[in-house]
Amino acid sequence: MLLLVGLASVASGCFDKPGFHGGDAAGAIDAPSDMAEPPNVMFVTSMPVELDTGPGGLDTTCTGIANSAGHPGTFVAWVSTATIDAKSRLGSATGWVRPDGTPFANTVEDLTSGHIYEPPSLDELDKPVDPDVPVATGTHADGTDDSGHDCSNFTGGNNQIAVGFTDGASPIWTDAMIAPSCSETLFPIYCFEVDHRAYVPAPTTYGPLVFVSSDPFLPGTMTGFDTGATVADDICNSEALAHHYPGAYSAVLALVAEQPLARIGGASQHAWVRVDGVPVTRDFTTFDAPISVDANGRYVDDQVYTGAQQANGLPDSYMFNCDDWTETSGTPYVGFTTRGLETFSGTTVVDCQTAMPVYCAQAPF
Q1: Class of domain 205-362
Q2: CB 3.0 to 4.6 Å from 277: which of 22, 178, 183, 341, for a disulfide?
Q3: Which CATH code of 3.40.50.300, 3.40.50.720, 3.10.100.10, 3.40.120.10 fits the domain covering 40-193?
């Protein structure tokens, strides 16, 4: 038997297809009966563009690039100014997919509340872009203008520009950092078609499940006879059981003598899949999407314990994994849920007395 995970089944805990994950996570919308139109396309431009033409000029650029690549219709740039926010520029359009047909988001509300599916990592030709190249937006995660960081309303000048990264979930895809003067640097931009009121279903993918724990893990704690990383495993399995997710789960944590990937059973033939159906990774080394959804289907912007700088690495010393997670002293490595490249970041920003979520991975198959 296989398991189909959808919004109703997440809420009720009723599943009938083990290993088959998909459907809308929390916050998704049901398909309206009057939305039978084709989806809109969104992409990031393959080449950087001039940012001094105003929003209208950038819209013309987007439409020209899209039409030349075989995407007919009208496109607008995801940019904000003091007089109009990016979210308002999308009008009444709904339902966006990437050029490969995989879902990006359904509504403006989804876009601005963190509910996006696949990251916006494909250009107009359906090719992956370099995730380290920043994309100009001038736009906060809520779709509003980042005043003072919008290239002087995209007319040029020396003021700075808010940028996003294409491998990110919210807010990273649109509001990751502030880049230097936009009069000296060209940036790619995001382009959204605005012709249709469409609905795009969540992906449906076969594979082991991965999620961010809702409950935090505190190193050095004991649960019954369990200590260290086993306590984190208990958190993962408890949350999976509460939602009737099948199989056994392990926390993706490094031990001094065991890599995170080895601890969860090694690479998987089928990609690990988020609760919303989005495939993430087969090896925790390369990521198609960030691990940004918890067991409840909520989209998470948080730090997580990892204990290593990469899935096939070990901590440099016990200090970087809280003495195999049994002590409250040390500065452990953490990762970030909102960017694929930073799932394992090599950053040590907390001490071992901080309670923090973990990644929970079902045994691979």
Answers
A1: alpha beta
A2: 22
A3: 3.10.100.10
